[in-house]
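Exam prep: given the inputs below (a chain plus 5-bromanyl-1,3-benzothiazol-2-amine), describe the expected output before reading on.
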Amino acid sequence: MRIDVLTIFPDFFTSPLRTSLLGRAIALERVHINIHDLRTWTHDTHRTVDAPPYGGGAGMLMRPEPFFEAADELWPAQRPRTLVMTPRGRPFDQAFAEELVQEPHLAFLCGRYEGIDERVHLHLATDEVAVGNAVLGGGEVAAALMIEAITRLIPGVMGNEHSGIEESFSDGLVEHPQYTRPATYRGWSVPSVLTSGDHGAIAAWRYRQAVARTRLVRPDLLRRDND
Ligand code: JA8
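Solution:
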């Protein structure tokens, strides 16, 4: 998979891309990620990327030209699946991540200020994506989140040929509680079923716990009309 990111803060991505899972995916060449500084595609001495909104209003918007000129240079033939992060977009969830991991080429357009000129949304982006129900200062954190969620699904990245089975079993539920050593810590003991060796009883306990916790913290996941 190839991923291109257009941003005025390329440095933001250096640490997440070097770290942990993503660093491993890159080292294994399962994914090629290119971070591009949008100011590369400016022509004035101040390398301006923003301008005030037509019609008035607070703040500044990202101008369209750097995005389109970057696209013409980087993707002259085949345009990638091009995602623009915005609070008005389609909510990003696991099903969306699983859809996007099928793509050979993704592009992330990161806006700052009050957003991006509508012509970028209309004529360059293929998808508007919302990450969470909070407004961020820009698209960079949202893009990093999506890149992590997508790349961990690339076969061979997580060593997840096994964990796919577990995910389908508890599909649509929050996770059951998990415990590791020591068996007793500060007087708090691990539930005895988990040390019983009875794998049927363990599976049943985990399922009951997952359903109960889902009902408590994410009742929306148990409704049948939500996807
Ligand atoms: C924002 Br400005 C800006 C750009 C993209 C996003 S995605 C999100 N939740 N907030 C804000």
